[in-house]
Amino acid sequence: MITEVKQYGATFKLDFSLVYWNSRLEHEHIRLVSQFQPGEAICDMFAGIGPFAIPAAQKGCFVFANDLNPHSIHYLKVNAKINKVEDNMIAYNMDAREFMRHLMTVSKSELDTDTQLTDILVAKTNEIPVVKGPSEDVTEPLETGTTYKEGLHYSATTAHTAAKRRPRFSREDKKANDDFTNGSSQRDGNFKKRIRGYKFPLPRISEHFDHVIMNLPAAALQFLDVFKGLLQRRYWKGSLPLLHCYFFLRSNETAESILQEVEATLQSKIPDPVFHRVRDVAPNKAMFRLSFRLPVESLVEEEKVKDGKPSESNL
Q1: Domain harbouring 23, CATH code
Q2: Region (Disordered): which ranges (predicted)?
Q3: Where are the beta strands (DSSP E) in 2-153?
Q4: Which of 10-19, 118-127, 228-237 has the lowest mean pLDDT?
Q5: Distance CA 189, CA 168 (A)
Q6: CB 66 within 8 A of CB 94
């Protein structure tokens, strides 16, 4: 059944028989997006129909959004057009690990040119099988008058603030909602007026992105292995990205045990991890978000060169 839902000023069209949606996670969507700044680059590994990607694009971020389910990508593109943010987003229909590797693979053309920007494109994969339901079928997924380079400069000047030590656990609070719907709505409203009708330049993502959303609570922790050796020290510029990884915590597990698992996967200590309790999903099971900055030990020295790029087309 095709329907439309509204969430914090965004409209989402979807078919409940083909994609996943949970309106109870509305506040978490906006709570995370409220941490983003206009001009930042966001990678959404399990984007679904866009509960994070659409509001992030509305805020003036540039979003690289991926999902394995082609139905989710179809509605993501539809929703991007409905909300007039299609020029702020690239949609990918790929395996999540391949998606991140593809973004970070430096092509020969990039090595031979100083060009920083190109046209907005949408990557497609023609061999992805059609599946019913979201790619996260083992879980309950959560639901410009400025250029990217200007936004990147803004992000770099505020990176030290984001990197300050935070409490080990954060609490659900009213501030995130107020920041997004009140103060930031006026600011971002003016920002969106400036960018309306303007085609966002595409950042060279292998050099910098600011946030990675891993919205796959039952399995996202297993996908962290893709970040070991993913970023190339030679090309990376600015602060390392913040990762936001959703997971389920059961009664026989602790935040410390989860952190140990993450550190073992990345083979590095995680400085200043932030655990946020999203909601209880069962008497002995809760959904959490772990946010942390990718450790510098994850950078790789050698360069990866790719002869070609996957087929791409306009959104």
Answers
A1: 3.40.50.150
A2: 158-188
A3: 2-7, 10-15, 41-44, 62-66, 89-92, 106-107, 122-123
A4: 118-127
A5: 33
A6: yes
Give residue 272's pLDDT band: very low, low, confident or very high (50, 70, 90): very high
Domain housing 124: 2-313
Share of the chain above pLDDT 70, in %: 64
Residue whose C-alpha is closest to residue 258's, from 281, 290, 284: 290
Structure tokens at 173: 């609070």
Higher pLDDT, 198 or 272: 272
Residue 289, amino acid: R
Cβ count near 237 (within 10 Å): 10
In the three-class reduction of DSSP (H, G, I as helix; E, B as strand; rest coil), residue 171 is classed as coil
Instruction: Tell which wins on pLDDT, 307 or 21.
Output: 21
Say how far apart CA 203 and CA 151 lie, in whole Å. 10
C-alpha distances in Å from residue 140, one per residue of 120, 192, 255:
31, 32, 20
Strand segments, DSSP code E, in 195-268 are 211-214, 242-250
**Rounded to 5, what percent of the chain is helix, strand, coil?**
35, 20, 45
- Cα 248 to Cα 233: distance, rounded to the nearest angstrom: 33
- Return the residue matching tokens 């494109």: 121
Number of domains in the chain: 1
Q: Are strands 62-66 and 89-92 parallel, antiparallel or unpaired?
A: parallel
For 65-93, what is each residue's pLDDT tens digit? 999 999 999 999 999 999 999 999 999 99
Predicted TM-score (pTM) of the model is: 0.73
Tally the residues of the chain: 315
